[in-house]
Amino acid sequence: MSQQLRSTTLGDTLIDYTVKRSRRRRRISLTVDEQGLRVGAPLLASDHAIAAMLRQHASWVLGKLAEWQARRPPPRHWCDGDTLMLQGRVLRLAFETGPQYIQLHHDRIAVSPGLAGNADGIRATVTGWLRRQAMACFYERVAHFHPLLGVAAPLIRLSNARTRWGSCHIYGRIRLNWRLIQLPQHLIDYVVVHELAHLVEMNHSPRFWEAVARLIPDYGARRSEIRTEGHRYLLV
Ligand SMILES: [Zn+2]
C-alpha cells in the first residue's frame, strides 16, 4: 500500500488530496472528511482514471469540502476574548487577576494574566479545567441514570479520542470523551445513556435501543444531532 499527495483544480479551486492504492481495492473511491479529500484506488489504477473520476464528481467533492469547512470550529489562538463551549454555553476567555489560577464567572473563564501569550500553558490549563468539569458532570449524570437502567454504577474514565464520544467495556467500565462537556446537556445525556445501556446489551440490537428509549424517548433526534453537529467539538 502506498499513499501519495496530489493536487488538482476542480472548477476554480485548487484541491489537495491523497491517493492510497491498495491491492484489495477493486474500484476508485472518494472520501471527504475533516482530513480533506482522499482517493482510494486499485493498485494499477492510472492517474488518468483518477483524474476522470474527480472531474466526474467535482461538484460532489466541492460541496462536501465546503460542508466540512463550515463545520470547522474557528481557529483558537488562546488569547483574551477567545471563545470556548461548556455544556452548550459560549464562554469567553479573559485574563484576570483572581484568587485562583482559573475560575468560571458567568460567561467567562478567568485565567491568570501570568499565562497571557503562553498558548501552550493556556491550552493545558483550560483543557485541564474542562476535563475536571467533564468528570464532575459525567459522575452526576451516570449516578442519575444507572439506577433507572437497573445497572450497577460503572467505573468512569475520561477518554481523549478524536473519533468517538464514548465506549463501554465489559466488567462495568465506561469511557466518556472529555470533549463531550462542550455539548449541550441533552446530548451529553444521550451519550451517557447510550454507554450505560451497553452494560445491559453489548450490541446495538433492538433490545439495546429499547433500553435507551426508556430513558430518552427522543434518542433518534439526539443521535442525529450529535452526528451532524457534534464532530466539530472533537477537534478542540
Ligand atoms: Zn454503542
Which descriptors would you attach to this protein?
flat, Zincin-like, alpha/beta, 3 domains, 236 residues, four-stranded mixed sheet, binds zinc ion, 11 strands, 27% strand
Structure description:
The protein is an alpha/beta fold. It has three domains: 2-71, no CATH class; 83-128, no CATH class; 130-235, Metalloproteases ("zincins"), catalytic domain (Zincin-like), CATH 3.30.2010. 38% of the residues lie in helices and 27% in strands. Strands 1-2-4-3 form a four-stranded mixed β-sheet, covered by helices on one side. A hairpin with a 2-residue loop joins strand 3 and strand 4 (36-42). Helix 3 (119-149) crosses helix 4. The radius of gyration is 22 Å and the shape is flat. The two termini are 31 Å apart. The mean pLDDT is 90. The structure holds zinc ion. Residues 194, 198, 204 line the site of zinc ion (ZN).
Low-confidence stretches: none
- Find the CATH topology of the largest domain: Zincin-like
Major sheet summary line: 4 strands, mixed
Whole-number total of structural domains? 3
CATH-level-2 architecture of the largest domain: 2-Layer Sandwich
Structural class category: alpha/beta
Unique bound compounds: zinc ion
CATH-wise, what's the superfamily of the largest domain? Metalloproteases ("zincins"), catalytic domain
Given this structure, which CATH class of the largest domain is correct? Answer: Alpha Beta
Percent helix:
25-40%
| Arithmetic mean pLDDT | 90
Shape: flat
Name the strands of the widest sheet in spatial order: 1-2-4-3
Element pattern in H and E: EEEEHHEEEEHEEEHHH
What oligomeric state is this? single chain
For the secondary structure, the number of strands is 11
Rg = 22 Å
Alpha-carbon distance between the termini? 31 Å
How much strand content do the residues show?
25-35%
The number of helices is 6
